[in-house]
Design goal:
Length: about 400
């Protein structure tokens, strides 16, 4: 392992692939890259992503895209890969935490498709708080397990030595996906361990990821700036209310595709973000889970330390003090009437805005909606109103 506070700029013609991990400042980095796109291009740095984050394109590359999203993303992945491979820019980059879901055969596919000499960037944060953030992200995808149940299930699925005790198709067990040992073994085997760069910001540092990317792509410091973009977790009571909604929806036979096209994606995901300004009640990983997270992290640190990877920052910052985590924090059982009303409004709005297809006996998958998750609030409301009117009168009369 090569320890460094800074890294050398990439050679001309090289590529940079940022693969996450999720909830490690990826949204902030992607927003900064998107905002600085003209400046980067003028400096010879080409970002092949068309928007802040092309999640479905990256899921296609990783072989993890659900079938109900359709096949248009394969065409986009092919075009993005060609752009990455053939761009005459001095440096080419792509950022998506969804890439970290790739299995070994898809990692090789990604390398072959992108085609050029590339470095793989992995941004990190301590596992213990990351698990709480990941749980509430699962709720946004129709998760139904309480936090403790979810944590026990995932710790039981992967041993500290990396042995996986469960099977999966698209979505890796959380502790396998976040394993730095797996990254070294699988991504290092394809791209070369010496081309892996792990970034560990000190506690409360929100800029090290930006400064590291600036250094790698050879642009002046402060080219990338933190953007005001809310990607905070839901407060614990509102997260629990959403979980119970998911449970009832599932128990009455609601299908996953419809849920993802309404609550879990597009307008629903955008509107749920607006609830993070409610009274704060952070979701905290319990002490027993923090202790077990440290056990996994210590093994991962050893794997990275024994590799040829570069580390920016201090791997010891990935460990937490279990005493700072609650010994027994019970899940909330009530929300305020304001929260209940606002969450009910979100669910009502996304239901009105859903263009449900005609049902047939064969039960076709719902057609994907317009990509409106990044629309400004005013445009989002206008689009939802248009869809509501169309549901009331399919001929579109006002």
């Amino acid at each position: 392992m090569e320890a460094a506070l800074e890294v050398e700029s990439l050679p001309d013609g090289a590529g940079l692939i940022h693969i996450g991990m999720p909830k490690t400042g990826t949204t902030a980095l992607q927003a900064a890259l998107n905002d600085a796109r003209p400046t980067l291009e003028s400096s010879g740095v080409h970002n092949v992503g068309r928007r802040r984050h092309e999640m479905n394109t990256a899921l296609t590359a990783a072989g993890a895209l659900p079938s109900y999203w359709g096949d248009k993303w394969q065409r986009r992945w092919t075009a993005l890969a060609e752009d990455f491979r053939t761009s005459p820019a001095r440096c080419v980059l792509w950022s998506s935490e969804s890439l970290s879901q790739a299995k070994p055969d898809r990692i090789q596919h990604i390398a072959d498709s992108l085609g050029r000499d590339s470095r793989v960037l992995i941004t990190l944060r301590p596992l213990a708080p990351l698990l709480a953030s990941q749980w509430q992200e699962v709720l946004r995808r129709r998760g139904t397990d309480p936090l403790d149940v979810w944590l026990h299930r995932h710790f039981d699925s992967v041993s500290v030595d990396g042995t996986v005790h469960t099977t999966w198709t698209r979505v890796m067990p959380v502790l396998h996906r976040f394993s730095l040992r797996r990254v070294v073994e699988q991504w290092g085997a394809v791209f070369g361990e010496e081309n892996l760069i792990f970034v560990v910001p000190p506690p409360q540092d929100r800029t090290l990821n930006l400064r590291t990317v600036e250094r790698l792509v050879g642009v002046p410091q402060d080219t990338l700036a933190l953007q005001h973009r809310d990607n905070a977790s839901l407060p614990y009571p509102e997260a629990e209310m959403l979980r119970h909604f998911n449970r009832v929806y599932t128990e009455r036979g609601g299908d996953h595709a419809t849920w993802m096209f309404t609550v879990g994606g597009g307008p629903g995901r955008y509107l749920l973000r607006q609830l993070t300004d409610l009274d704060p009640h952070p979701i905290r990983t319990p002490r027993w889970a923090a202790e077990r997270a440290n056990e996994h992290t210590e093994a991962w640190i050893e794997a990275v330390a024994g590799s040829r990877a570069t580390v920016v920052g201090d791997l010891a910052d990935l460990l937490v003090d279990p005493a700072e985590h609650p010994a027994d924090e019970r899940a909330p059982t009530a929300v305020s009437v304001e929260s209940a009303g606002r969450l009910a409004d979100v669910l009502f709005q996304v239901a009105l805005g859903y263009d449900a297809p005609e049902t047939t006996t064969s039960g076709p998958a719902p057609a994907p909606p317009k990509e409106i998750g990044d629309l400004p609030a005013r445009d989002l409301v206008r689009e939802l109103g248009r869809r509501a009117r169309r549901r009331i009168d399919p001929r579109g009369r006002k």
